[in-house]
Amino acid sequence: MDIEDFHHFFDCCVGGWVSERTYHYVPQGEIERSRTEFQVAAIPLDLKHKVLQDNQYAIPPLVEDLPGFRLGFHTVSETGETVSQELRMLFVPQAQQDGVLVGDYLRDRAYEEDVPIVAQFRYTPATRELLMTTRYTRVVSVDSITLVNPQLRVRRILNYRRPPEGQPLDTLVLAGFGVEQKEAP
C-alpha cells in the first residue's frame, strides 16, 4: 500500500489556517456565515496511542507512521456565537482500491458528540481529496477537504439525517462550504 502522497497531504495541512464558511441549514431555510481559525500540528506518538486507547482500537503495526493531527480551532459566526475545540485525530489506512486509500479515522472526541469515535475515510490522490464519513447518533456527516495547493483548501460538509441501517442518505440537514487559506508562518 503506497501512502506517500497521503503523508504529503498531512504535511501540507500542518500550520495555521483561516476558513471563511457558509452553512445552509436546509430544514429551516437559514444561511449562516462564519470565520474559523485553525491550528494544525502533527500528532506525537504518545497521543497516537491515546487516541487508539480512547477508541478501544487494536494497536496497528507501525503506529509511528500513521498520519494524524492535533487540531485546535476557534469559530465565530456572523451572529457572534463562538465555538472553540481541540481534538486529536488519527488515520489508519486499511486498503487501497483503484488508487483510492480507505481506512478508519479515529478521534479522541467527536464534533457532534463529545465522545471518542471511529469513522471511515477515503483519500483520492488524483484530486487530493480526503473524504471522512462519520455516523453519529442522529446524523451522518460527510466531510471533505480538498487540497488545491499547499496554501489553499476547499472544504465541504454535508450532514444527513441518519437513516435506518441499510438505507441511503437522502435527507440533508446541513450543507457547509468553505475556502481555507494557510496563514504565513
Q: Strand share of the residues?
A: over 45%
CATH homology superfamily: Calycin beta-barrel core domain
Low-confidence stretches: none
What's the architecture, going by CATH? Beta Barrel
Mean pLDDT equals 94
Main sheet summary:
10 strands, antiparallel, barrel
Oligomer: single chain
Q: Output the structural class.
A: mainly beta
Q: Walk across the major sheet and give the strand order.
A: 1-2-3-4-5-6-7-8-9-10
Number of structural units classed as domains:
1
The tally of strands reads 10
List keywords for this structure.
185 residues; Lipocalin
Please outline the helices and strands.
Elements lengths: L3 H10 L1 E11 L4 E13 L2 H10 L13 E10 L4 E16 L2 E8 L9 E8 L4 E7 L3 E11 L2 E10 L10 E11 L3
Antiparallel strand pairs: 1-2, 1-10, 2-3, 3-4, 4-5, 5-6, 6-7, 7-8, 8-9, 9-10
Can you characterise this structure?
11% of the residues lie in helices and 57% in strands. It has a ten-stranded antiparallel β-barrel. A hairpin with a 4-residue loop joins strand 6 (117-124) and strand 7 (129-135). The chain is globular, with a radius of gyration of 16 Å. The chain has helices at 4-13, 45-54; strands at residues 15-25, 30-42, 68-77, 82-97, 100-107, 117-124, 129-135, 139-149, 152-161, 172-182. The chain has one domain (4-182): Beta Barrel (Lipocalin). The chain is mainly beta.
Gist?
The chain is mainly beta and 185 residues long. Helices cover 11% and strands 57% of the residues.
